[in-house]
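Weekly puzzle thread! Below is a chain. First person to post its structure in token form gets bragging rights.
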Amino acid sequence: MTTTMNDFGFGTQIRKSPYFDATVRWGAQGFSVYNHMYIPRDFGDPVKNYWNLIGKAILCDVAVERQVEITGPDAARFTQLLTPRDLTQCAVGQCKYVLITNADGGILNDPVLLRLAENHFWLSLADSDVLFWAQGVAVNSGMDVTITEPDVSPLQLQGPESGKIMQSLFGENISDLRYYWLQEKDLDGIPLIVSRTGWSSELGYEIYLRDASRGDDLWEKIMAAGKQYGLAAGHTSTIRRIEGGMLSYHADMDINTNPYELGLDRLINLDANIDFISRNALEKIHANGITRKQVGLEITTDPLTGPNTTFWPVVYNGASAGKVTSAVYSPRLEKNIALAMVSIEASGIGTQLNVELPGGMAAATVVEKPFYDPKKNITKSG
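Winning reply:
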């Protein structure tokens, strides 16, 4: 059966991306809401989507990754205020994975930061209202900055064939683009920023459209270029991102989670001579230690039929010890794998736990994470 826009119930209060019509034409069967926008979550079998991603390539509408644009004479100093990661060595044209933290050390978002010019930054957001936060901070900062949401809508082209598809679109020189760097491009008059980033743990690129009126054109050009390489329309893969230990905001972390609990110490530079909002709180947490920690789990039960849609309680020595935040069956590893937030006492590698699944208790073991390609050799290749 052919799906049309009339088959969906959409309202005007939730925004559609510039690629919305194209994703429906190419088989989108279900949507959810992220950053007040519709995002296609279903192109059919999620396992097939996974194999398309790791075997060939997929194109994903991730226009929901809205940009917070920070410009003005004090843009660099202001952007540093938002994150505990030292940005003083971040070059123009470079990207950084950062955490946006509040005065209590809680995580408000985990965007990719792009530095387009000396005083021109984008924060490519996960699902929370950082635009409002940044504008509020700016009011009382005494800094000369302008903070807006620009007309920018990213796509993700991910998978082992993505490099060849990019060469078809932009020429062989695109292969010189390094991991976590960006370039400004023009594709047949379509203004773009291209970065070697993505939310897939695979080789991939993000293509930031700077003119929403060209969304349909851009989608079709990429799909045409990728046809010979087996490119498929798809959606971000829960299976692959959990294999890679990639975090999902509101699931694996939130405002009540601090970076140390996630093992993201490398994103906190307390020794650097920088000023950031969460410094005092993170210094105290660092000194006092944490009482819980994110771990990887292997859950011993029949293959899960899909990802968890609720947090599953974790039990250690007969007592509550935390919760599973993300879980899925990996067809490549042939295991049920999960990310969980558990008490320090229950966090050691090899610790035996129990997880309360909807159908009953199941045994689980704490294991190393990421579950696949821990050194990120795949994403850095190409």
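Puzzle host: Confirmed. Bonus trivia for everyone else. The two ends are 38 Å apart (CA to CA).
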